[in-house]
Amino acid sequence: MMIMINTTILSWVTFIYFVAFVCYFISAIRHTNLWGRVASVTVLVGLVAHTVGLIIRWVESYKMGIGHAPLSNFYESLIFFSWTIVLLYVVFEWRIKHRSLGVFVVPMAFLAMAFASLSPNINSRIQPLIPALQSNWLTSHVMTCFMGYAAFAIAFGLGCMYLLKSLDRNPAESSKSFLRYLPSSDSLDELIYQSVVLGFVFLSLGIITGSIWAHYAWGSYWSWDPKETWSLITWLIYAAMLHSRFVRGWRGKRMAVLAIIGFAAVIFTYLGVNYLPGLHSYLQS
Amino acid sequence: MKSFFSSVKLTLALLIVIALAAVLGTVIPQQEAADTFTSRLSPGMVSVFQKLQLFDIYHSVWFMILMGLLSINLIVCSLNRLPASWKLFRGKSVLDEYDVFRDLPPEQTIMSERTRSDEASRLEGILKKNYRRVERKEAQKGVFLTGEKGNASYLGVYVIHFSILVILTGMIVGFFFGFDAYVSVAEGQSVDTVELKGGKGFKKLDFAVRCDRFTVEYYEDGTPKAYRSELTFTRNGNTIHQGAVLVNHPATVEGVRFYQASYGTVPSGDALIVVRKGRDRTHVMRIGAGQEFDLPGKEGRAKIIRVEGNFMRMGPAVKMQIQSAKRDVQFWVFQNIDEMEAAHPGLKEQVPIFDPGLFNPYVFSLITIQPRHYTGLQVNRDPGVPIVIGGSFLLVSGFMFVFFYSHRRVWIGVAQEGAKTKISIAGRSNKDRVGLDREISRLIGEIRKTGS
Asked: How much is the ipTM here?
């Protein structure tokens, strides 16, 4: 099999994200700004290399005469998912001026990359677009969906941070511990809300663009296909979460738990749905 | 009753129950897929499942009731809350004197050398640049300026709720006034009746659709690149539309959409035969089983009775029948007749029905048998689509109002303090405190910069 330059770059990116995660971890444990700065620079280098890798992959597909955006198979979706996570993370870090989120979010980007590169069932070759994917809606649909997934991934990371933070019984005493390094519960709660809103808007856009595409490709904008249904389930969970906050004033721990439940639905929509036909065939055998 | 429908607890319960029902529908095989599943269940279970409509959850009565309850809940809640939001939207931001300036962080007060009225007009100018609504109030203690924007954010949630109702209406319109059907058309065939999905019978269209050609293109590595049906739509023999239908590129004829859904080959296929009369006339024609044609010299009428891909293990062959005023003969035309004769000299004389020249002076030969495709078209009409699209646009614009705008009010107090003028800046927002803080520090920066 021909090894392409883009996959080489992308496997290096996997390694860089791992290094960035280790740096974030050390900085969180030892409370040193130096390690934090190293982590931020590393993750930025990774993001730039990741972007270059994606662009090269795009260009390579055109050189092969089957040009299309690198969003067309499982490998490419994992790579793009990881890219959106890191992109959003960098924006969040820059806005909240806090690096502890990196400990929770960067490993997700690393895992997605590692899964894409290492799993034997995932084909990393550039494949031509099958007729069903030959549509202008492919790019806008996949991009909006994965921006949504990435925002929910960040909300998940923040939710974990909130729950960890609430373990801290004596905030005053443990001034040296890792938990003290995390942002205050209030700001975590606000950040969970903001990232869920971002994800919710992008997921809605993803469902809408997907419906328009389905209208052109499948003859129906909504046909209760498992992936469609699960995206709706995810949407309903986050809608319930937002209503409970807006109208019933739920805050803090409940929001954190809902952010984690919601992300489980996101992951099932993304990965689990592929196993649903398998479940059926198990029932038939 | 009204309080039941106006409770947000009901909203949350409905959202969760609908989500759970949706989960159930992805776990239990639905509609056609249920057939193989039912054979694994006991008859008792099957009837329980059928009574609960668990094999078609998304179209079941109870799922519709859930959606109906959600809609009522949404309408009642919105109507209940709308007056209060309208008040907030229209409301004047009355300033309760100096209360808002109490406990202000030190960075939100500025001491200026200019006079009170100078500062007041300068600050009013700055506010007017940044806010939609600016008001000035002269009080005994000083001048109060109010800047306000984003009060439309109170109404965004109603836009969202309304858009959900619009989308549901579009779905209902599609359900009652649209149809969902399938038809397969062989190349050369013309049909005007389509089969409704879910075993709901057939539907006759106002026009006919003919498949002129179906082709599959492949990439170099053998994966399919394009499925293309060349279609002609006719009414009373007149062409009303003609064009190709590909995956992702449906055709719309009088509100009915045709989608490339599947394809296949017709069992027998078409024979490509050559008709030769003596030495002078040669005709090549493509013809399928059951079709007839006149002989070139009008001596009779020929009919293809059978088309076989491999007849008696002797390769492709067609069985023909020729009827004339005097004779009625049937015989086989083999593609490999020359090889067969070489292997069995005298074959045509011994087995006359293997003689392609049995009807003198005509000689037929079979060049090849070409597979004939049929194209599987999904045929839909859904008048609810524009409504659903309109609802989706409303939904997105509602999100913009609710999530990315906030009602922001900024108050500036200008008061005399000794020989200097004291400027105090305070603000409030219905959400997004962080954004407001950022906006206030930007405003302070602007005031300081232009002030010095």
From this structure: 0.88
